[in-house]
Every structure is written in C-alpha cells, then in structure tokens.
Amino acid sequence: MNNFRLVLIFSVIIATVWLSSCKEKNVSDKDAKRAVELGELVITEYYDDSTKMIAEQAYLYDSLRVLKSYFYRNGQLYMIGDMLEGVRDGEWKAYSEEGDLLTEGFYKNGVDHGLKSVYFENGKIRYQGKYENGKKVGIWKFYTKDGKLAKELDLSLGQEK
Predict the structure, then answer these.
(1) What totals of helices (H) and strands (E) does the chain contain, helices first?
(2) In the predicted model, what is the mean pLDDT of residues 111-124?
(3) CA 49, 50, 54, 57 torsion: positive or negative?
(4) Contact criterion met (CB below 8 Å) for 126 and 142
(5) If you average pLDDT over residues 61-75, what whole number do you get?
(6) Is-contact 101 91, C-beta < 8 A?
C-alpha cells in the first residue's frame, strides 16, 4: 500500500504542476468539475463560483482507492487522506490555514483505527492515543502547550479507567 500511495502522491504532484500551467479557467458552476486522465491517473478538481479549487481527488483508473484533498479559500491544504469505496480508509491529516499540522490519524472502513495525534498551533503535541475499530484503547497521553505531559489515561474499549 505504501508504494501505491507514493506513486499516487508523485502523480498528483506532476498533474498539479501540469494543471497549474494551463491557462483555461472556464468554470462557472459552484461545483464544477474538471477530470483529467494522465495515463491511468484520473484527477477531478472541484471549484467554487470564483474559480478557486476547493477540493481535489486523484485515483488510478479502475481503482476504488481515492486520495482526497480539501483546501481553504486561500489555497492552503486543509485536509488530505485516503478513501476506499467512499469512506475514509488509511491515513488522514488536517492543517491550519497557515499550513501547520493540526491532526493526523488512521481510519479503517470509515472509523478511527490506529494512532491518532492532535497538535497545538505551536506544533507541540496536544494529545495522542490509539483507536481500534472506532473505540479508544490503551494509554492516551495529554500534554500542555509547552510540551510537558499533563496526564495519562488508560482506556479499554472506550471505557475510562
């Protein structure tokens, strides 16, 4: 799966550079789309009514896995992650309007599954813990804005101990 993600990300970068060099900006619908096929890679862009791209998806032709990207109005990446058959599946990251990482985590079949990390705007970790099939499990750690451990909670199947 990592090779697929690397190829997909590299292809998205190449396609984005190519698309940004295009002069055509004939988009008037609020949810207008432009799909571009580059070999087997398909990219669909979603625009608002001012021709600003607000979302993008990229996938390999005949694949059910999609890399979704959402953007702030200033063009900064807001959120990026994998979807499989229409639900979150794989790594997802969210960013501030300034480009700072705010959260990162993993999903399986549309629910939290795996490590989840949430950050303060200064880049220090706010809290971190693990999910299994949408339920919090194990040790969850919470930190202060200056990075010091504030507390730990031992969770088991969503129950606080």
Answers:
(1) 1, 12
(2) 96
(3) positive
(4) yes
(5) 81
(6) no
Q: Residue 30: its pLDDT value, please? A: 34
Question: Is this prediction's pTM over 0.85?
Answer: no
Residues 7 and 52 in one domain: yes
Residue 147 located in a structural domain: yes
The two beta strands, 65-71 and 149-156, are: unpaired
Q: Which residue range forms the structural domain that includes residue 152?
A: 100-161
| 50 and 114 together in one domain | no
* pLDDT tens digits along 11-52: 444 444 334 433 333 333 333 344 444 557 777 777 777 667
Q: Is residue 85 part of a domain?
A: no
Contacts of 29 (CB under 8 A, 6+ apart): 47, 49
User: Residue 1 corresponds to which tokens in the numbers above?
Assistant: 């799966």
Quote the CA–CA distance of 146 and 43 in Å, as a whole number.
41
